[in-house]
Amino acid sequence: MNKVEAMYVDGRFQLPQGQAHSDLFNPATGACIGQVRLGDAQDADLAVAAAARAWPEFAGTTVAQRIEGLRSLHQAVSDQVEAIAEATVLEYGAPLARARGMAQAGAHMFLDAAAVLQDYAFTRRMGTAQVSMEPLGVAALITPWNGNAMFVCAKLASALAAGCTAVVKPSELSALQTQALLQALHGAGLPAGVINVVNGRGDEVGAALCAHPQVAKVSFTGSTAVGRSILCAAAPSFKRVTLELGGKSPTVILDDADLGQAVALALAAGFSNSGQACSAGTRILVPRARLDDFLALLKPAVQATPVGDPRDPATVVGPLVSQTQWQRVQRYIRRGLDEGARVLVGGEGRPDGLPAALQAGYFVKPTVFVEVDNAMTIAREEIFGPVLSVIAYEDEADAVRIANDTDYGLQAYVVSGGDGARARRVASRLRAGVVSINGLHHEPMAPFGGFKHSGLGRELGPFGLEAFLEPKTTLGG
Fold first, then answer.
1. Which CATH number goes with the domain that contains 432?
2. Would you say residue 337 lies in a domain?
3. Do residues 236 and 279 share a domain?
4. pLDDT attached to residue 1
5. Lowest CB count within 10 Å: 12, 99, 130, 298, which one?
6. pLDDT at 418 > cutoff 90
7. Which residues are the active-site residues?
8. What's the CATH code of the domain at 109?
9. pLDDT for 65-80, tens place per residue?
């Protein structure tokens, strides 16, 4: 049985004041594998106090000193990639290659931030003024369970590059992953109080951080509903807030696309991270004239998608994170049927043929709905599981209209044939923070974030750095 007892405050591991514990589960088997001791609002206060004490000196460090610290963090996390990946498979159920990739991506975030620092002008002339970019102060970084190390490292990298100190509130569902990551962060040797981590519930530790008078910045990744509550909690003290929230991303397949390639890309985008990804392409928009041909290729491709043991290298879709999440996805599948959509493949319940050891795991059948209207619940709300909706469109204008007819605007995908100019034209008309053409592309120096209910602000690259900075204008002298 794994026990996670300590939080990390002021440069050392220590027991929290909170006395409550939360069970940890292996989602592939449903078995309880440990417990985490949860911090409380008093622990949040202690962590903020440590970060506030460390901030004046850390804010005064040079760019070269911060680059050195970021490189130390990169090396320390790189050395722990296998331990972090193992915890991610055990506790989250990510397929092994995905778990390792997320851990490696987290480590690389520190090098990316160091590269931004090397070229960033913290002081510049604007007319007769000198404008300096100054760190905000103590940053509260609140991260979700669907990419623990990656999200923690991404937010930390930008905050530290800016000269902010940090209090991290990771998901309590990710305690084993956090513990493995913390060993690396501690080993990097940054000054005490620069990085602090408190396990705890969002409605206690997270809420305390968002309302704390010494917290200047909140950066949150998670659901739109929680993001809305964070924005309200931060408003009285005018905290700067970055929110990376939900999505209902369209995959727009143009009529000149190769359908075999389109199916492969649509499934890669839709089933990314076992469907537990805010950027997942869960609405597949297909020209009505090519719909039958597309579905004829899509159905066997979904049926052939390997589901099961996350340690099996062949597995593409692992279990969902928890029983609660499994039940949520089952409710959405039932809702889709009730509202008149038709299941092309998949449906309710667990996949057939799971080994006996996995039959209590939180596995969902990869499911595709057809005859979906964009007004249906399954096309409007974020499901966060391997459940996709195919929506037919009449022409390019209709495709753009349907794609943009959503409260969200995080990511979009365009799949086209040889007409690159047309694909870029369609991409330019989509209301999304990121549009990926003919692939699942990623550029860590480019901003990531969403329009509309998908959030506020941007992360990564220079935009991510500036989210933790405030401009000061000096005139005369």
1. 3.40.309.10
2. yes
3. no
4. 79
5. 12
6. no
7. 244, 278
8. 3.40.605.10
9. 999 999 999 999 999 9
Model confidence, pTM: 0.97
> How confident is the prediction for the chain on average, in pLDDT?
97
> Residue 247: what residue type?
G
